[in-house]
Amino acid sequence: MDSCVMRTRIEGVHLVQTTDFFFPLVDDPYIQGKIGCANVLSDLYAMGVSDCDNMLMLLAVSLEMSPEQRAVVTPLIIKGFNDLCREAGCAVTGGQTVKNPWVIVGGVASTVCRPTDYILPESAAVGDVLVLTKPLGTQLCVNAHQWLGRESFDKIRDVLTEQEVVEAYNMAMHSMARLNRNGAKLMHKYGSKGATDVTGFGYLGHATNLARNQKAEVDFELDVLPVIKHTVAVASKTAFKLREGLSAETSGGLLVVLPADQAKAFCEELEMLDGVPAWIVGRVVPGTRTARIMPDAVMMEVSTPQLAYKR
Q1: Backbone angles phi, psi at 27, to 5 degrees
Q2: What does pTM read for this prediction?
Q3: Span 36-50, average pLDDT
């Protein structure tokens, strides 16, 4: 699933490890560094691992930039990555830097732990529910923002103002740069049966992957899609397939399987810790290890905190 779990030669000690990297998607290099870090760590958090022991940073410096531009952008990306690592309680101890036509940022996150420190994503049972810890729609927010000042903006001009696009973009930046660490901690407290983080395969894609990994013959039925405010309007004029759960996400939330009687308390405590809601979005039913968005599923627009950004 999201991380590799390996036995070590030391009895009872396991290594949980993951790597990820991607191209920039926001204008602010400092925030991009934070998003890159959050995205890597989310693979550990999806396993219920809340502490990262070591982080290596992967960075490609763009040859398309002038030396003066690289001298400004590169340190800011590194600073954002390092700052969020410190917030997560770990440190960047090394990595690899290369030259490339485009900037790339990512890392390798590793944890040495006991089997009781992680939760394998395989134990969903009929009657459990699914909780999502971040809203959907980051791809739409980023693309709409990139269209500002271009002809591409014409396709959504009649449904959104430029101010609304910036508002959605700022909410997406805050969401992508926010750690899923508290969610990982609470997975243990509230008896999670497993989780995944919602990223490149989209909401339905990751739900399907999680369903396929279950020991029991179950299905996941998703009937709520919490989405960032203004993204429903963008989706109505584009082909991102937000309603179908196929729009890619970056540094998205955890999709967590929980006992039905524990989900509400999980959401309430996570909101208290992070200052942002989490939502019960579906249920586990008998089936054939697949996931589906129900025909009557609700797209629920939500307002979340914003990172200050002025275009």
Answers
A1: -75, -25
A2: 0.96
A3: 98
